[in-house]
Write a structure and sequence with these properties.
With about 375 residues, the protein is an alpha+beta fold. Helix content is about 30%, strand content about 40%.
């Protein structure tokens, strides 16, 4: 009778042991894991995405006239009339204004009289020189006297040449009493009116003329993309005042040197403007076509750490340890940035790293590695 009782008791104890020990071990393991989790920081990571830097984003540009020149008066006087006003299209050689030049007219009359006077003196000196040369043959005059008459003839010739040059100068100035257009274009400024005193040496500009077909477009390309913009390449131009419309410009040349202040390259484009609907001096945006730069990485801007050492990112290795990397940034697009140096596509970078993150810190990745979608 005792043996069955002992067997039953043994079975009961064994059953209790089998049911209690696993639960007790699981509870201890759970407590240990909870304590370990309290000591290790949970982080979410992301991997940089390879992409190619492009000029798809519009770049600010400035539109200028192909040729622009202020027009001044070369003859002094009073403005008699003007025949071109703001916005008028003029052609090369067209008269823009006429100037009355009474003082210049008097100077011309004086120059003509001086030329006639010197011409008469030259004629007399020529006759005298010829007579003295004949008298010298018969020894009627001395060599000195004949030489003096020859020298006087040369002097009179020089005076005639000087008078003729002065008359030519004044005649050329007289031709400027009609202000003409030096090329085809549009009058953008008129700073004069009838009766105004015109001073040739210290006067202000009368008109400003601009050639608006074609137009020059200037844009500053970032240094990282200067080798992707080449002469002959096309670009789309967008103007805020003309929504929905796009104009095509062609790259003609570049400055050939990067501006040290902005680290950009000045590029010139040419834009056809046959209907004159685009105005010089306008602000525009340029989007280059079929342009791709060197391969770069893109990553969310939430991984950036700004400290005294510069911009850094916290990378988690396979052992769960943190390593801080110094970054070289490219363009900032708001929600993501371009990484030129410091990261690779296999790096796991912490998103929104805690302020206390440091080199060698142990963390635990709380979510699978994600990637930043390329845009």
């Amino acid at each position: 009778m005792r043996r069955p009782v002992w067997i039953i008791c043994l079975l009961i104890v064994l059953g209790l042991t089998i049911g209690f020990v696993p639960r007790w071990l699981a509870r201890r393991q759970l407590v240990a894991e909870t304590r370990a989790a309290d000591d290790v920081t949970l982080v979410v990571v992301v991997s940089p995405v390879p992409t190619r830097a492009d000029l798809g984003a519009p770049i600010p540009a400035e539109v200028q006239a192909f040729v622009e020149a202020p027009i001044y008066a070369r003859a002094s006087g009073y403005l008699k009339s003007w025949s071109a006003d703001l916005g008028d299209h003029v052609t090369n050689g067209q008269v823009l204004a006429e100037i009355v030049t009474p003082e210049l007219d008097q100077q011309l009359e004086q120059a003509r009289a001086e030329l006639a006077q010197n011409q008469a003196a030259l004629n007399l000196a020529k006759i005298t020189d010829e007579r003295w040369a004949e008298l010298l043959k018969t020894a009627s005059v001395s060599d000195q006297e004949a030489a003096e008459k020859a020298a006087d003839l040369a002097l009179k010739k020089a005076l005639v040449d000087a008078a003729q040059a002065n008359l030519n100068r004044l005649s050329a100035l007289k031709n400027f009493d009609r202000v003409t257009a030096p090329f085809d274009g549009v009058i953008t400024v008129r700073n004069t009116d009838i009766g105004q005193l015109i001073t040739a040496d210290a006067g202000r500009e009368l008109f400003r003329l601009a050639q608006t077909d074609p137009l020059r477009v200037y844009v500053r390309v970032p240094q990282t993309l200067i080798h992707t913009v080449l002469p002959g390449q096309t670009a789309e131009m967008i103007f805020q005042e003309m929504p929905g419309r796009k104009f095509t410009a062609v790259v003609t040349r570049s400055a050939g040197a990067v501006d040290a202040a902005s680290r950009t390259l000045l590029v010139e484009l040419q834009l056809q403007n046959p209907r004159g609907e685009i105005f010089a001096g306008s602000y525009a945006q340029v989007r280059f076509n079929d342009t791709a730069g060197p391969a770069v990485l893109r990553v969310s801007d939430s991984v950036l750490i700004t400290r005294a050492q510069g911009v850094q990112a916290a990378v988690v290795d396979s052992d769960g340890r943190v390593h801080l990397r110094n970054l070289t940034l490219g363009r900032d697009f708001g929600n993501y940035v371009e990484i030129l140096a410091g990261l690779t596509t296999t790096d796991r970078v912490i998103i929104n790293p805690p302020d206390a993150v440091s080199e060698g810190m142990t963390v635990q990745v709380a979510a699978p590695t994600e990637t930043t979608p390329a845009k």
